[in-house]
Structures are given as structure tokens and as C-alpha cells.
Amino acid sequence: MGRPTKKHQSGAATAFITRTKAVKRLQISLKDFRRLCILKGIYPVEPLHRKKAGKGSTSNRTYYFVKDIQFLLHEPLINKFREFKHFMRRLKKAYGRKNLNAAARIRKNRPKYKLDHIVKERYPSFIDAVRDLDDCLSMVFLFSTFPQTNITDSRFIQLCRRLTVEFMHYVIASQSLRKVFISIKGIYYQAEIMGQTVTWVTPHKVGFAHPTDVDYKVMKTFAEFYTTLLGFVNFKLYNSINLKYPPKLLLDSEKDEGVNQSQMSEVTKESTQKPKKKGKKDPRQEAKLNRFVEKETLEERLSALTQSLKTIGSTLDEDVQLDHFPSSETDNPDGIELAKIEMEKLSKFQNLFKGLKFFLNREVPREPLVFIIRSFGGEVSWFETQAVGATYKETDEKITHQIVDRPSMEKQFLSRYYVQPQWLIDCVNAQMILPPDDYFMGAVLPPHLSPFVNEQEGDYVPPEKQVLLNRQRGIDSGIEEEDSDSEVESGDNVDDDDEGEADAKEKSGEEEEEDEDSDEDDEDSDDDDEDSDDDESEEETVKRKKNDEESTPPKKKKKKDEQNTSTMSVEAGTMEEEDVNRRLQQQTAEERRLAEMMIPKKKKRLYKKIMYSRKKKSQEALKLKQKRHAIDKQQKLEKKKQKVSQ
Fold first, then answer.
1. Distance CA 541, CA 223 (A)
2. 203-228: buried (b, 16+ CB within 10 Å) or exposed (e) per residue?
3. Residues 53/16, Cβ–Cβ less than 8 Å
4. DSSP-derived pairing of the beta strands 196-202 and 401-403
5. What does the DSSP 8-state code read for residue 200?
6. Exposure of 624 by Cβ count < 10 A (0-12 exposed, 13-18 middle, 19+ buried)?
7. Residues 139-150, buried b or exposed e (16+ Cβ, 10 A)?
8. Pair 264, 292: CB distance under 8 Å
9. Do 393 and 435 touch, CB atoms closer than 8 A?
């Protein structure tokens, strides 16, 4: 027999550790422990058996994996946290003794640390980092809109702002934006980066008040790691499309590069010194001030998002056509054709606003609209007094659309459309230019549908979404409404009656032709029989036949023995155009029917359950359609009553 194991020496009791024991083992404070776990990506876990993990105790505790805590023992950040703790102790002692010189010297030697090694540990490949950008972008965009307070440092806010502007420039240059949606929380964006879908939300730019029930220290710890991650990602993304990093505008020369932080401090120091005598100016100080101002204007122009960025080396032209290699026998030709169609649709969608010029009014949100327009190849500008970066004025005759969010304007140009901002976003989500009639100034806007909702088979589809789907498929007519206006109904009935009358006339005309042919044959036979009996001369019979021919329109007489030469005409042959989408749809439908036939009996019951649930879902969708139809009908009746009362 083997040696018996003691209780709580194996299993869950040794796999988990409580938070208090972990803090004691690491010899750091609870605040630093939380911060370290956030940076390293270690989170609490819930054991399956709390009693076994707690060694017989069922109290409510926070548990971690023992392996994770052992992994934290060798983290170099722990030493930095201890150095910072010692730094704060010395600084407090200097301020307590009112020794300001010593306090200033200590503040200069503030310990600093980097998170580069943590980023490399958590994301071994670049695709992993891109896949985890959702929360990163949302947090960094949130901090970039914060005001300067005791909780949020101004330098950190400026860093977040710079990183977000760089990322937006990459999305514009790569044309990777796909979906946009405005909600109460903010504006949702979705982009396709390196084959990965990245979704983030940016808050609305309104007056911000810090809520009191939020732990900003925890949020800042997350944002601190995310800024390091986003800096790495921006650098890699810029190099992937041959853009210079840090970004520089295309029209600027190399001498427009800004000064570094030390030069900025020297400028501020020299500006605070006593002014020299009039007439004598220091050229070095003026040069530094000019370069500092140029750097500020460069950052403002970069944040305007209206100009292109510098590239590294030569880039491929857009008009260059790549070589096409024929596929081998093993390749799927249908898949290749479908991929070509998808590529054509994508290129058309990426240049949705190409050739259009937009002008933004003062009341509309400038940055999100500029980001959307530039991401799809459009040009945009605004009033020069509003912000830096305007490229053309309002009086430009080449402007096609002016984005307005007010009921009316006194001065208008006939050569452009005045639409509301929702038109831009709905065009992006529909992947086509929508008619601007429903988005004019003062018009009641249509519902703003979410592009992130994909209705499956049997789900309820709103009428507005159905109209949009019909437009995408090339069907101009919208949804057929039962309760249409009386004028439209009468017009449709008239058209139907006309078509029925025309068909009846054609049928009656054919019958009259056959009757007249038979009558003429009978007349000829009667004339032959009556020649001997009647006293009419041949001249009178000829005149009578001429009068009959003039009274009736000319007809083509057909004989049974003669061959119809009209059907034997030869025409030039034409190539039959095959609809690839229709053929692929038919092929998938046939494959689906065959798959249903090949389901074994054991799984037939499960298949029937799935089909039953789909049937129930379709019934619920039908009920929603009927409810929506009743609501629309009631609204129409109310509108008619209002018109009658007026």
C-alpha cells in the first residue's frame, strides 16, 4: 500500500489561492496588486467546489490560480512599485520639513517604468493584438475627451488624443471602415483591419461631468496599458501601408518637424526671463518659438483629418491591374467568380463618396462626419473660423452636398443638396448612395436602423429594412401597401383595364381575320356559281371588290399549302450572359435539398425540432408584421382626419 495523502494537500485546495494570501506572498499592497493584475491580464476565478478550494471553508472569498500568482513573482514591475513607494515617502518628508529645494530634486528623480515587455507577453503575434483592439480603442477614445482635472492628467489626455488621431488616419488611408451607428451612448464604428473586425464606440462631445460612482484609478490603469498597446499597433499598421510614423502631412516639408520636449522647456524658461532692450531680439529664441508654434499647428492640422499623409518610398497606383492566372482543375471556379464579385462590391463601397464634395455647417459634429466622408473617398471642408484645416470655402460651386442640422437657411445654392447628417451614415450602412429626398432640411427623418443586426431566415424584418434590401438588390419598388391612396388605386385599375382591353382587341382582331378569310373564300365560290345566272358585268364586280378593299384595312392572307417566310429570317447570334449569383443560389438550394434528403433517421427528430422552432419564429415575425401594419393604418387614418379638419 502507498502512503496515504493528507487532507487538503492535492486537488482544488492546491490549485487556488485567496487574494489575501496572494498579496502576502507578493509583499505588495492591495492597490498595487490590483494594478499589477490589470496590467498582466490576470483576473479572479470561480472554483467549481468552493468548500474544497477553501479547505473546508465556504465563506465568500476571491480566488486566483496559484500558477498566475507564481508567474507574478518574477515581474520586474514589482520592484518599480516598491521604488515608487519609497519615492512618495521621501517626497512627503521633504514637504513636511518645508524643504522645497529637496522636494524639487526628488520630483525630478521620479521612478518611471515601461509596459513594452507586457505587451509582447500578452500578444505574441500582431493579429492577436488587432483582435483585442475593441476595448482598447473604446477606452482611449473615452479618455481623449476628458477635461483636465485632478483625476485625469493633461499629458495623458494629450497622449490619448494623439493616438486616436493616428488610428483614424490609418482607417482613412486604408479605407477599412465598414459600419457606423449613432446611439445614446455614442457613435459605434466597425472597421476591417488585417482581416479582423474591430468595433469601438466614441462618446458624444458634450459637456462632461465626472460621475461619482466610478473608480477612475482602475480605468486609468487600463488606459495606461491600452495606450502602450495602441502605440505599437499604430506603428505596425502605418508600416504595413508604407506610411511614415509618426505621421506627417503630405504637403509639409521635412523642416516642419517639431521640437522635442527639452526644447519646449527651454523656450518657456527663456520667455519667462526679463525682456531685453527694445530693438535687440535673440534669433535663437525666435526660431525656437516659431518651431514650437509650427508643431502646435501641425498637430491641429493632423487632427483635422482633411489632408493625406506622407508615404515611405513608392506605393502601388490604384489603376494598376494585377495579373490574372488561370485556375487549375482542383480550384473551384464558382468560388473564384464569387470572390471577384465580392472584390468589385468592396472596391465600389470603399469609394462610395468619391467625386463628391461636402461642406459642414457649424451646428453639426465635425470630427465624426469628416472621418466618415474621408474614409470613403470624399472631400470635406467647413468654415475657416470654426477650426484649422478647412480646404475650400462655402461659395465653391463644385460642392455637391451641404450637411445641415437646422430647419431652414436663408441663403441656399441651387447646385447642391442640403441634407441632414443621418444621410451620410445611412448611405454607409446601405453601401449605396440613397436618395436625399427623405433627409432634406426640416424633414422628418426615417428610422435609423442598426447595421449590427442581421435578420436570419424567419425573423421579423421592419418595412424600412425591407425597402433598403430591395434597393440593394436593384428593385426600385418598395413594399406593397394594401391601403394606398385612391388616386393610385384608380390609376392602377385604369392601366389594368387598358391592358385587358388591348388583349381582348388583339384576340378579337385575330378572330375577325379568320372570319373574313373564310367569308372571302365563300364569296369567291358564290361568284363562280352565280356568273351564269346573274346579269352583272365583270366591270361592276371589279368596282365592288375595290370598294370593299378600301373600306377594310389590308390583311395578310395565309394559305395552308404556302410556307410562312417571316419565321425563316436569319439574325446575328448574341452571347448569352449568365447570371453567376442566380446560378450559385440555385446550386446552394439544390445542395440544401439533397442534404435534407440524406439526413439519417437518428437525427431526423432533431432536424424536425429545429424546423419547428423556425416555424414558431416565423409565426412570431408574422404577428409583428400584422401589428406594424395595424399601427401604420391607424396613423394614416389620423393623418387623413387632420387634413379634413384643417
1. 109
2. eeeeeeeeeeeeebeebbbbbbbbbb
3. yes
4. unpaired
5. E
6. middle
7. bbbbbbbbeeee
8. yes
9. no
Kindly compute the dihedral angle of the four CA atoms of residues 385, 387, 388, 393, in this order, to the nearest 10 degrees: -50
- Secondary structure (DSSP) of 174-190: HT-EEEEEE-SS-EEEE
The cell numbers describing 410, all together, are 436663408
Q: Is 116 left (phi over 0), alpha (psi -120 to 50) or beta?
A: alpha
* pLDDT tens-digit map of 11-47: 777 888 999 999 999 999 999 999 999 999 999 999 8
User: What's the mean per-residue pLDDT of the chain?
Assistant: 78
Give the three cell numbers for residue 613. 422552432
Measured between alpha carbons, how far is 479 from 464 in angstroms, rounded to an integer?
9
CA distances to 264, 516, 521, 552, 557 from 541, rounded to whole Å, are: 119, 18, 16, 17, 21
pLDDT tens-digit readout, 227-269 = 999 999 999 999 999 998 888 887 654 434 443 444 444 444 4
CB 403 within 8 A of CB 369: yes
503: CB partners within 8 A, 6+ apart = none
Q: Report the candidate in 360, 353, 403, 393 with the shortest Cα–Cα distance to residue 374.
A: 353
Residue type, 541: T
Q: Domains of the chain, with CATH numbers? A: 12-108 (no CATH), 116-247 (no CATH), 347-453 (3.40.50.10190), 456-476+596-646 (no CATH)
Q: What is the DSSP string of 64-101?
A: EEHHHHHHHTT-THHHHHHHHHHHHHHHHHHHHTT-HH
C-alpha cell of residue 489: 388605386
pTM: 0.71
Please give the Cα distance from 290 to 165 (Å, whole number).
24
Q: Strands of 317-386 (E only): list them.
A: 357-360, 379-381
Helix (H, G, I), strand (E, B) or coil at 293: helix
First-last CA distance in the chain: 101
Look up residue 352 and give its three cell numbers: 462610395
